[in-house]
Amino acid sequence: MFSQKDIARYYDLSESQYRFFWNLDKSLSLHYGYWDDSTKNFHEALLNINKVLSAKAAISKDDKVLDAGCGIGGSSIWLAKNIGCSVTGISLSEKQVNKANALAAREGVEHLAGFEQKDFTATGFPSDSFDVVWAIESVCHATDKSAFLKEASRILKKGGRLIMADFFKKENLDGKDAQQVQQWAHGWAVEDFSTKEEFEKQLQQAGFSDIRTEDASHAIMHSAKKLYRSYFIGRVLGFLYRFINRNPAPQGKKNIDTAWLQYKTLKKNLWKYLIISAEKN
Ligand SMILES: C[S@@+](CC[C@H](N)C(=O)[O-])C[C@H]1O[C@@H](n2cnc3c(N)ncnc32)[C@H](O)[C@@H]1O
After folding, report:
1. C-beta of residue 68 within 8 angstroms of C-beta of residue 138
2. Structural domain includes residue 181
3. Which domain holds residue 37?
4. 86-98 confidence digits (pLDDT tens)
5. HSE (CB half, 13 Å, CA atoms) of 277?
6. Which residues line ligand 1 (CB under 6 A)?
7. Which of 8, 47, 135, 272 would you label with 28, given CA atoms 20 to 30 Å apart?
């Protein structure tokens, strides 16, 4: 099982790879993005998911938003700049939180977007204090996803919205399929992915209704392929790093393998990328 320290460490060690392969400094994004007919390039796709999710959750400038698992703050800063709402971002990584606060200041939105090192399953925020809980590719890390949902339900006001985008494995996987999906998950410090069915049940149990699920796998396919292609570059760079340093790059080999696995398993329909919205009863 991955501890909170393991997850934070995974992100801290992987930062340079995200910077190299994922345009991190410009996009501030640690997610797949969302490609639609009007998307011209990767950078646009990375930002586009913010547009898609904020529209689905009808976020307005009067909303108080929690960005649960905020990375280096890309979505929070986007929301503050483009919608003008106030956002609190939380991450397990102190390094990410410090970076996010510095980026919010650089972008002139520190009065709207602030970041703290906290666990989204036990935030310590008062009950009924947020209008929206937002989570992109972060809830997958929770070993017990219902712990996140219970906490989201507690801190949301009545009628508050949950909006998230994440990976969900196909039901009843077995054999090599199950093994490949698990190997990918573990490479990203994820214990296991939920299935859509299991997660929807947990949403209801946590007090959510009006649950809407959209399969957005088609909208991440370009990014999944781009990540897959980086596998080959990563192999060469990994070889050079080992050759020069006589040591493997930290987290390097695992991230190279996951780049291959995530695409192969997506092409085999072993998982889906879902956008889920729900309302607190
Ligand atoms: C793939 S990154 C996504 C970051 C951001 N949502 C984005 O789209 O750029 C996953 C994030 O979830 C955070 N995370 C994972 N488990 C968490 C937990 N229990 N509490 C708070 N943050 C968590 C990690 O620290 C990391 O910042």
Report:
1. yes
2. no
3. 4-173+189-219+270-280
4. 999 999 999 999 9
5. 16
6. 7-8, 11, 29-31, 69-71, 74-75, 90-93, 96, 119-121, 136-138, 141-142
7. 272
Residue for token pair 């930002």: 47
| Residue pLDDT, tens place only, 107-139 | 999 999 999 999 999 999 999 999 999 999 999
What are the phi and psi torsion angles at 148 (to 5°)?
A: -65, -45
**In CATH, what number is assigned to the domain containing residue 162?**
3.40.50.150
Of 145, 271, 173, the C-alpha closest to 220 is 271
Query: Above pLDDT 90, what percent of the chain?
Result: 82
Domain presence at residue 233: no
The preferred substitution site among 120, 133, 141, 262 for testing ligand 1, maximizing ligand atoms within 8 Å of CB, is: 141
What per-residue confidence (pLDDT) applies to 21?
80
Beta pairing partners, 234: none
d(CA 76, CA 133): 11
Task: Please state, in angstroms and rounded to a whole number, the distance separating the CA atoms of residues 190 and 183.
Answer: 10
Around Cβ 204, how many Cβ atoms within 10 Å? 13
Q: Kindly tell me if the per-residue pLDDT of 188 is higher than 70.
A: yes
Number of domains in the chain: 1
What digits encode the pLDDT tens for the residues 21-70? 888 888 999 999 999 999 999 999 999 999 999 999 999 999 999 999 99
Q: How far apart are CA 21 and CA 194, in angstroms?
A: 27
Nearest CA to ligand 1 atom 23: 69
Best CA proximity match to 96, nearest among 69, 128, 61 = 69
Whether 209 is in a domain gets the answer yes
Q: Is residue 93 part of a domain?
A: yes
